[in-house]
Amino acid sequence: MAQPYRFLEHRADILFEAEGKDFKEALSNSALAMFSVIGKAEGKEKVKEKVKIKEKGENKEQLVVYFLSKLLSEMDTREIVFSSVKIEKLDEGKMEIEATALGENVRPKFSVKAVTFHELQVKEDKKGCTIRVLLDV
After folding, report:
1. pTM beyond cutoff 0.85
2. For the chain, first and last CA: distance in Å?
3. How many CB atoms lie within 10 A of CB 111?
4. Structural domain total, the chain
5. Are 122 and 64 within 8 A, CB to CB?
6. Tens-digit pLDDT string for the chain (137 aa)
7. CATH code for the domain in which residue 114 is found
8. Residue range(s) defining the domain that contains residue 60
9. What separation in angstroms does the CA of 54 have from each of 26, 66, 115, 116, 130?
10. Measured between alpha carbons, how far is 90 from 16 in angstroms, rounded to an integer?
């Protein structure tokens, strides 16, 4: 199966596009793309941890940045690396999201400083949704 995201060329940071049949799936695939950038280094004993994530924004673009930033912050604070996320609730009217991320207490291979608004795009059409995100590394 082809990856639901692809990396694009960028001079200094990491730029990717994630696709889905709708905004919810594209947002979930954006998280997977970010997780794949961070990766896992070998080392510590692996203990799985579930983390509940709640976030809201004013619009879809803001929700993308806030949601991915919250995931990044939780990984940093808890010293874990997420490998999957399940979006349980996405209210596009109120721009609120509730999700559960699954992670392990392993060291990241790569450090992502921030999720940025620079070059951010959310495109929706009959074929689905594409989200473009720039990660500051």
Report:
1. yes
2. 28
3. 9
4. 1
5. yes
6. 578 888 888 677 999 999 999 999 999 999 999 999 998 766 555 778 999 999 999 999 999 999 999 999 999 999 999 999 999 999 999 999 999 999 998 888 889 999 999 999 999 999 999 999 999 98
7. 3.55.10.10
8. 5-136
9. 17, 10, 17, 19, 22
10. 22
